[in-house]
Specification:
69 residues; alpha+beta; Wheat Germ Agglutinin (Isolectin 2), domain 1; two-stranded antiparallel sheet; 2 helices; 57% helix; 17% strand; binds zinc ion; metal-binding; metal ion binding; LIM zinc-binding domain-containing protein
Length: 69
């Protein structure tokens, strides 16, 4: 009886732990995604913006169309 109870407790703890890992995994993935996207500094205001949102012209980086002009 004692051993059975211990096995049940271990199983419950293991299940809880694996569930916790499953819940945590997506957040880790999104963190990796955001960190892998290159950050560029605007040559006008020095604001750091993701590469896919930046406007690059003549080798210079701009955060918005206002700074491009
Ligand atoms: Zn700017």
């Amino acid at each position: 009886m004692g051993i059975l109870k211990l096995i049940v407790v271990v199983l419950v703890v293991w299940l809880g732990f694996s569930l916790f890992k499953k819940i945590r995994k997506p957040s880790v993935k999104t963190e990796e995604k955001s960190s892998s996207s290159k950050m560029l500094a605007c040559s006008v205001c020095k604001t750091h913006i993701p590469e896919n949102e930046a406007i690059i012209q003549d080798g210079k980086v701009y955060c918005s169309k206002e700074h491009l002009e």
